[in-house]
Amino acid sequence: MTARTLDRRRLNLVVVIGMVAALLAVTAAPVGASVPCGTVVVADLTLTGDMVCPGVDALIVGADGVTIDLGGHEIVNTGGGIVSGVKSLGFDGVTVRDGAITGFYRNVHLEDAHSTSIEDLAVSGGGGWGIYALDSDSLMVDRARISNVPDAGILVTGGDGAILRQVRAQGTGWGIFIIDSLASTVVQSHLSDNFYGVYVYLGHGNVIADSTFRHNSTAGVASEFATKTEVHDSRLESNGIGLHYFGTSSGGRIEGNWIARNGIGVRIGFIVPPTEYAPDGVHVVDNVIAGNAGSGVLVDQTVVTGFAHRVDGNQVLRNGHSPGSLVDSLGNPLDDGIHVVAPLGAVELVDNRAIRNADFGIYADAAADLGGNVAFANGNPAQCSGVIC
């Protein structure tokens, strides 16, 4: 063997060792380079540039516990299709943060992906959903900005214990849509110019707190076939209905809110006892309900359920002056501060103050008068009907 041949072999060996070392470094350390569309992410990834992915999935999670840091960059779909910006199917403890995802059918797509954290993310456009979470418990969304998504800004379906904090959703079908979820929380969020702000369906024990709802065309908050939905310390202004509880939405609590300039302030519709949880009425407690076009509080329930809603300690001011075509189930105009159409014993009224409403301060064809209700300066000289004021 000549010296030249030996040197060549040594050189080749050095090259091979270097290639193996480089490969190991890529799999063991966070990736910090641009990656192609369709990349399966099995280690922490930080983008160094924007990604344009026409009609294909952009990033696909392939391991538990990875962090996808967009590094302030944007992932864009320019080609339509039923595709996702970030997809995580069956992986837990994943974090997606710091950037924008635009134009995908599901901008973030989670299924059976528990304890996922989404932080500082802007999501917009596409043909379907902003953040889509199916059967994914303990989702955390913090500081998300979602706009111009035709379906839900955030969909939580079948997953429990979600915390959605500092979410701004605008121009969506449902700003936040919670389906069949237990103990999820929406807090410190702002939902405006959506069809619905937050819609809770078939859930139990979900809480909405310290949030703002404006210009949502149908309702700021809706609870349908959901039990123990709680809304407190929030502002609901200029929505079609401020808060609407119906279906088997028993046991809810609406407390300490500012509810103003909506079509109807609070609407409690036809409610029947649920099958899984003990029935209870909806409690409307210590709210300021002012300047709504129709009634401040409407309870319109024509069946006997055996449990009572409670309207307690509310300030009901200047409602019902522009009801237009708003009427109850019997065709009566909604121009009272509190308007009750319900069987005897279905509603309890106590300690409410009704002032300067268009017709009656409180109108109740059949209600349990627990006392302490006060009404004055309302349009009807009688001030109240069905209770003593």
Structural class: mainly beta
Count of strand segments: 39
Biggest pleated-sheet summary: 24 strands, parallel
Distance between the termini: 112 Å
The whole-number mean of residue pLDDT values reads: 90
Strand content: 35-45%
What's the helical proportion of residues? under 10%
Shape: elongated
- Poorly predicted regions are 1-33
Counting DSSP H or I runs of 4 or more residues, the number of helices is 1
Radius of gyration: 27 Å
Verbal overview:
There is one protein chain. By secondary structure, the chain is mainly beta. The chain has a domain at 32-194. It is 7% helix and 43% strand. It is built from 1 helix and 39 strands. It has one helix at 3-28, and strands at 39-41, 45-46, 51-52, 59-61, 67-69, 74-76, 84-89, 95-102, 106-111, 117-124, 129-134, 140-147, 152-157, 163-170, 174-179, 185-187, 190-192, 196-201, 207-209, 212-214, 219-224, 230-232, 235-237, 241-247, 253-255, 258-260, 264-271, 283-285, 288-290, 297-300, 309-312, 315-317, 338-341, 347-350, 353-355, 362-364, 368-369, 374-376, 384-385. The protein has a 24-stranded parallel β-sheet that branches. It has a 15-stranded parallel β-sheet with strand order 1-4-7-9-11-13-15-18-21-24-27-30-33-36-39, with no helix packed on it. The chain is elongated and about 75 Å long. The chain starts with a helix and ends with a strand. Residues 1-33 have low confidence and may be disordered.
